[in-house]
Fold:
Amino acid sequence: MNRLSAELSAGEKSDSGESDDDAPHRPSRPRAQARWAEAYRLPPIPVTVVYELAGRTYAWDGVLSRYDGAGLDERTRTVPCRVLVEDPQAVRRLDDDRGSDDGNRGPSPLATPSETGPPALMRGMFVTLRFHVEPDVPLFDLPEKALRPGNQVLRVRDGRLKAVSIRVLSVANHTATVRVERGELREGDEVAVSPVTEYVENLLVEPRRVDADKVAAAEPSRTQEIRTP
Structure:
């Protein structure tokens, strides 16, 4: 990775031997490589690399660097990415008594020095990657059972029912994280979780309220976990 960066930064001169004025239509190979590399770069996002061993959890700090490989896999709808860990020996143990990495940017405040864990991050380990992101758009957590066919939820506000279009980003532990147009959902809104056979816009309803049926704002630094060999 570092070698590639050095080669691109050194590529300022056309390998054709002609000046830019002589051959304005022929971009140099290094510049073409630079444009290709720029397209593969990603914003530097902090990543926690997590490894479990003998009932304990160990972690390293990394950074999401760029796309890797040939691009989008049409079969799995995934894109391989490169995560850089500057110091593979800087391993720490997450404090099991107080929880794991909490999703904040940077090192976990719950981390303790490694004792008898792995000496370093090594090839072949089966790890979990936690990406610490700060979305530019509002995201909401709501009960998974509130999701309706057609990417909708039924919002209850001021005693009236309204279908709201959503985009489901992830589902985990019976909770869905969704994206909606601004104003369509607010933190504390109620959503229907029981079957509604015939939906009528602005239908007056008398909901049976439980806290689990409310919309909550997703944490600004919500983590997305990905397991990788």
Remarks:
- The CA atoms of residues 15 and 28 lie 6 Å apart.
- The chain has two domains: 41-132, 139-219.
